[in-house]
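Below is how a single chain appears once it has passed through the pipeline. First comes the sequence as given, then the structure the pipeline wrote out for it. We keep one example in the README because the format questions we get most often are answered faster by looking than by reading.
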Amino acid sequence: MLTAQGLTKLYHGSVVLHPASFTLSAGEAVGIAGANGSGKSTLLSILAGALMPDGGDILENQTSVLANRRFYQQAVGYVPQADCLVPELTVKQQLSCWQAFTGRPVLQDRALAGLLGLTELLPKQISRLSGGMRKRVSFALALAGKPRYLIMDEAFAALDRNYRVQLENWLHDYISEGGALLWCSHEPQELHRLCSSVITLEEGHIIG
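Resulting structure:
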């Protein structure tokens, strides 16, 4: 179980995330909803280990993991709204670097390669990929090794419908097998198809 405990964030002296607390359990999918600028991406970035909070803690089974980089490498998959891929690399090089960094298999996972159509992308330079192709590579990095927790920020944006359907089916299986999903989307139907509960943010406050 992953617990957000009073997470806060300030930018230039202004509070953009007020104390946020909730839990994410194995086999559970939780949605994050809210208008643009409500603090959704900030909260997800903190939970994914990509951004440090100014207050609060993140616990797994009552043990703090906030500063445990190895935990995030091995246990958390993150699909950010804007990808963090290296434009100069080929897709194969990007996947190889990620595999070496996290220890999670990407290139050897044939099922994942088939799911995302990676084989055709491997020799391509990332700077030459379309938005949908880049998103598929981001998914490959996040899903590799089936991490215990998946955090997705507007993850289906730019994806072709065919890949959306396949990935949604994968996520259903992932949750049923004990994975935990935290998913932000502007599409209510996407959230309600997978999520058992939805947290709503408004101006940095959790209101429901």
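The two ends are 20 Å apart (CA to CA).

See the next section for the split statistics.
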